[in-house]
Amino acid sequence: MVRFLVKRLLSAALTLFAVSVFSFLMFFALPRDPVTGMCPKNCNPERLERVRQELGLRDPLITQYAGYMKGIVTGRDLGSAQGGRCDAPCLGWSYVTNEAVSDTIARVLPVTLSIVIPAAILWLLLGVGLGMVSALRRGTWLDRLAIGFSLTGASLQLYFVGAVLLLVFVYNLRLLPVPSYTSLFDNPVKWASGLVLAWVALAFLYSAIYARLSRAQMLETLSEDFVRTARAKGLTKPKVYGRHALRAAITPVVTIAGLDVGGALGGTVITETTFGIQGLGRTAVDAVRAGDLPTIMATVLIAAVFVVLANVLVDLLYAAIDPRVRLR
Amino acid sequence: MRPRAAVAAGGAIALVVTLGACSENTGEGTTVDNTRQQTGVIATDPKDSRGPAAEVAGAQKGGTFTIIRETPISHLDPQRTYSFAGLMANPLFARYLTTWKDDGKGGLVLVGDLAETPGTNVNSDCKVWEFKIKDGVKFEDGSPITSKEIAYGIARSFDPDLAGGPTYLQEWLADSPEFDTKWDFKKNKTSLPPGLTAPDAKTLRFEFAKPRCDLPFAVSLPTTAPLKADKDTGVNLDQRPFSSGPYKVAKNQAGVQLTLDRNPNWDASTDPVRHQYPDQFVWSFGPTADAANNRVIADNGADQSAIAFNYVPSSLVARVAQDQALKSRTILSPTPSANQLVINNQRVKDLKIRQALNYAIDREGLIKAVGGQTVAQPMTTLMPSSTIGFKAFDAYPAGANGDVDKAKELLGGQTPELVLGVADNTSEQAMAIQLKSNLERAGFKITVRNIPDDAKLDEVKKKDNPWDLYIGNWAADWPSGASILPVLYDGRTIKAEGNSNQSYLNDPAINAEFDRILTLEPAKQGPEWAKLDERIMKEQAPVVPLYVDVAYAVHGSKAGGVFISSVFGYPSFVNAHVKQ
What are φ and ψ of residue B253, in 5° steps? Predict the structure, then answer.
């Protein structure tokens, strides 16, 4: 178990290193000069060149990369043009938002976490629950209803569902406030009422896929020998379905959930855009549009961290859920 | 800039022109008013510069006024402010040496803001200017604002770390575009740049090597906002500027929300333009233009006292225009932002071809392509109608849809092959399709070449760029012909790259005329710029004037006092109030 964990963490670190190198190289490959973002008007070529040299943009790439990584681990001095001392984890300075990128991330990451984690709990409960019920009540009206729900959800787009939810609950019925983010610790009620539409929209669309997947997995598992054996031995239905069949059926669902949640934590771009909430995804898109390379690099790195960590977590969950899996 | 005579004492110098097409700009619907007159004035009677500003009819104190905008304001630090959002936000928490008293109906008066008057031209040669600072002006901490703090604000604008703002004062004081190499702010924090002195607490003095007659206009930009040296946090001032205006920053969640509370130390009796009606201003960032406008149209809760800073997007134009209930909540106004089809005169040397392009243009079709009358209004002059001294004319009258026969006649059977360079953004792509079909109908052969959007401006500013035609835009920093015609058409300024003269016109006779007009008294310059505008178009046709951008904004039912700034073309909040 420990050996497995060490191996997975090393592999995760290697992946993150590769991502950091690629995103850093992208900084130079993109047809965008970071200095022009700093001085969009009235900057003649001589001034721009001076600024480039002062910022160390003329140093060798390896020196610049080493400085960037050092900043993440120990912090570094970015110079007066970039706010001076930047504490670890220092992700650079944005000339678009005019603040340390780590400050931007610290502000927008809780927003995305607040959207994704409750939404993920909702979509997993709803999706897996519907899928299981549908499989156990195969052919009944409940099954047909669940299939219809999942088909509808799978065929819709978030920007449409989101717009409909806004129109109905915010603009017409006026039951909910305009979506916004308030810290959970400041005002839990405002936190929930400001994000509930985003949770519902995400949960509706994602749970559809999970319902279909769970149903198919459960049906397959129910036809397996060990389920028949368990029933033949006289175990009760709840024990057979809950303790044996569900654990076997849910393994692929966990894999997909790990990837989905990891990816969503890297940024729910469409959700954040539809509901006008500034999270990590929206920040990444704004950064791309504005050519804000330090912020792009940071968001790419953070998204990679979430995906890699989610995968490690999924591997660990396999062992917990399915006793046939042994970690080596 | 060239010399012009001293500002006359007593009274005001009024320059009155008739505008071709200006709408009401009062938040009272969308009716176009073709008879409105615009006046541009430099106030010289100190009474004009004194506070308090005239009360806004029906305005009461209280409430929160919300401004919803998709993207954050690029800079809040006044010395770094140059974006339109920044220029409209800054007056809420920053005061300058001079400012524009704008009635929202075409009347503009340049008055002293922190200064008692818009400046004294000491030797009548525009080389030495003096400003006397008002008594009773204070920062948010209650400490007095003197000439020393205003000078410090200007001095810090020399710091290359604080780039982004206008550079007129820095370049004029250093007499060089390389101003930051002439005077190093970081090494001289206790002194002042060359030519800038504060001989006593009430006096600020500028001495220039060359005449700078536009100084009263230039000091109306945020570069002259005061700052105490011990409150200078360098690049971090962008997060929390130190207020000299009626509001102060209460909370700034960068990129999410900026909250401004009343500044108790602002004294209305010193301020000729600003009010302090709402308890709070909130700039809310994030919602797209569609979402922001939908919220304001829905008119729920806090959005009743909100305005969408991003204008009504094309997807909502029909809905807003047709909804009679929204008439009283929309503002429709032309802005000073002028768009042209720029002709590269180095490549298109034949005047007849340039004239034929002017005759061929189908402005009505083009305006439809960019979104219709709520987005653009046609123009046939080089200067927009909001310019002091403006006179309407059409050097190549061809009706709304162009005169194909006249264009063909000028071409004399030729088929000129021209390359149109366009940015790869939605707006210019739509224009390119329309322009190609429009001009080819008149006998041109147009090849469209895409330019990456973020590189386009830099590329067309290169002297040897490979395009014959491109779409250009110019919004002057102040409404004077001096900040438009010499900047865009003086051929002596052409260099290898970074050219504002993108038509690359270089006519010695026109250049000489620039010099002549710039030596005239301010009162005489306006009509002379208008005459030169017509002459340039008739003799050289260096561009095809297309349209001015139109502001089409919607606000909540309780949002009052907003008007479109005649100087910048964006909503002004100095009169904003929440209807109770």
Answer: -95, 95
Whether the pLDDT of residue B312 is over 80: the answer is yes
The more confidently predicted of residues B64 and A40 is B64
Residues A65 and A157 in one domain: no
Clarify whether residues A76 and A120 are in a common domain.
no
Using pLDDT thresholds of 50, 70 and 90, give the confidence band for residue B18.
very low
Q: Answer yes or no: is pLDDT of B33 > 70.
A: no
Q: Do B234 and A83 touch (CB under 8 A)?
A: yes
Same domain, A98 and A117: no
pLDDT tens across B91-128, in order? Answer: 999 999 999 999 887 788 899 999 999 999 899 888 99
Residue in chain A closest to B286 (alpha carbons) equals: A276
Between A19-28, A196-205, B197-206, B238-247, the lowest mean confidence (pLDDT) is in A19-28
In this structure, the answer to whether residues A65 and A111 fall within a common structural domain is no
Question: Does A314 lie in the same domain as A193?
Answer: yes
**ipTM of this model?**
0.77
Q: How many residue pairs from chains A and B have C-beta atoms closer than 8 A?
A: 97
Please report whether residue A12 resides in a domain: no
User: Do residues A197 and A189 lie in contact, with contact meaning Cβ atoms separated by under 8 Å?
Assistant: no
B552 in A contact zone (CB under 8 Å) = no
A91 located within any domain: yes
Q: Residue B308 in 3-state DSSP?
A: strand
Is residue B8's pLDDT more than 70? no
Q: What's the gap in Å between the CA of B221 and the closest CA on chain A?
A: 15
CB contact under 8 Å between A82 and B235, yes or no, is yes
B209: left (phi over 0), alpha (psi -120 to 50) or beta: alpha
Residues A240 and A318 in one domain: yes
Would you tell me the crossing angle of helices A101-136 and A188-222 to the nearest 10 degrees? 40
Distance CA B102, CA B273 (A): 8
**Are the C-beta atoms of A286 and A94 separated by less than 8 Å?**
no
B37 in A contact zone (CB under 8 Å): no
Of A292, A293, A303, A290, nearest to A27 (Cα)? A293
Residue A34 pLDDT class (50, 70, 90 cuts): low
Q: How many domains does chain A have?
A: 2
At residue A188, φ and ψ (nearest 5 deg) are: -60, -35
- Regarding whether A136 and A44 lie in a shared domain, the answer is no
Q: Containing domain of residue A64, as a range? A: 20-102
Single residue among A102, A136, A155 that ends a domain in this structure: A102
Cis peptide before B52 (omega within 30 of 0): yes
Residue A3 lies in a domain: no
Q: Which residue has the higher pLDDT, B106 or B396?
A: B396
Tokens at residue B469, please?
A: 């035609």
Do both A198 and A72 map to the same domain? no
Q: Is B177 on the interface with A (CB under 8 A)?
A: yes
Whole-structure pTM value: 0.83
Measured in whole angstroms, how far is the alpha carbon of residue B115 from the centre of its chain? 22
| Beta-carbon separation of B234 and A51 below 8 A | no
Residues of A in contact with B294 (CB under 8 A): 166, 171
Phi–psi pair at A29, nearest 5 degrees: -80, -30
Give the whole-angstrom CA distance, residue B74 versus residue B84: 10
Mean pLDDT of chain B: 89
Indicate the residue among A102, A127, A154 that finishes a domain. A102
Query: CA–CA separation, B474 vs B349, rounded Å?
Result: 23
Residue B235 with chain A: CB contacts under 8 Å: 80-83, 98
